[in-house]
Amino acid sequence: MRTLKHLFEKNKAWAEKISSAQPGFFKELSQQQFPEYLWIGCSDSRVPANEIVGLQPGELFVHRNVANIVIHTDFNCLSVIEYAVEVLRVKNIIVCGHYGCGGVKASLKDNQLSISDNWLRHIREIAQKHETELSQIKIESERMDRLCELNIIEQVHNVCNTTIVEKAWSRNQPLAVHGWIYGLTDGLLHDLNVCTSSAEEMKTYFERK
């Protein structure tokens, strides 16, 4: 049978390592889930959410898709946000992309990727919105990295504009939305300084943009 035996062996070794360091960890974990954070990130395999922030299983609720996009017709993403906010009562939503994002790069190419091309159209619209700023960046890699940042900022705005977050803020539920970016070349996170914790704060920040 094609069971990918080596992955089962790695899983066993990992579980034994955790159990040895923290006896009863999995039994306790199976009975509760109280993360304070929702992570909305890119599907890129080089950006493992739990590991890069040093959190254990159960401490980070995660949703990932190509290029960390949040749109109001994506019921998968919205369902995750709703569960995190309404049921888990997370206090922080982190939208985290990364430099060198393949989805961002592909969005500006002429290649037709079928379904993916429709998904990445959202990033093309962001690029068009910021065309003046991006056109002034002459080095292509730097222009792509800036678009990665702009994409995250836009997705923070989209998260804040969901009815889920709006309702949470209207009932004074503690909830902040953050925009971060991860560097593949150094493994470090960078805060894009777009943290928003109320409708008033969101309006003030994004009206300046």
Q: Summarize this, please?
A:
The chain is an alpha/beta fold and 209 residues long. It is built from ten helices and five strands, in the order ααβαβαβαααααββα.
Give me the secondary-structure category.
alpha/beta
What integer is the average pLDDT?
A: 92
**Residue runs with pLDDT of under 50 for 5 or more positions:** none
Rounded to the nearest angstrom, the distance between the terminal CA atoms is: 56 Å
Helix content: 40-55%
Order of helices and strands: HHEHEHEHHHHHEEH
Number of helices: 10
| Count of extended strands | 5
Shape: globular
What does this structure look like?
It contains ten helices and five strands, in the order H-H-E-H-E-H-E-H-H-H-H-H-E-E-H. Strands 2-1-3-4-5 form a five-stranded mixed β-sheet. Helix 3 links the parallel strand 1 and strand 2. The radius of gyration is 19 Å and the shape is globular. The model has no long low-confidence stretch (mean pLDDT 92).
List strands and helices in order, with pairings:
Layout: H1 5-21, H2 25-31, E1 37-42, H3 49-52, E2 60-65, H4 75-87, E3 92-98, H5 102-107, H6 115-129, H7 131-135, H8 140-160, H9 163-170, E4 176-182, E5 189-191, H10 199-207
Parallel strand pairs: 1-2, 1-3, 3-4
Antiparallel strand pairs: 4-5
Keywords:
209 residues, five-stranded mixed β-sheet, 10 helices, 5 strands, 50% helix, globular
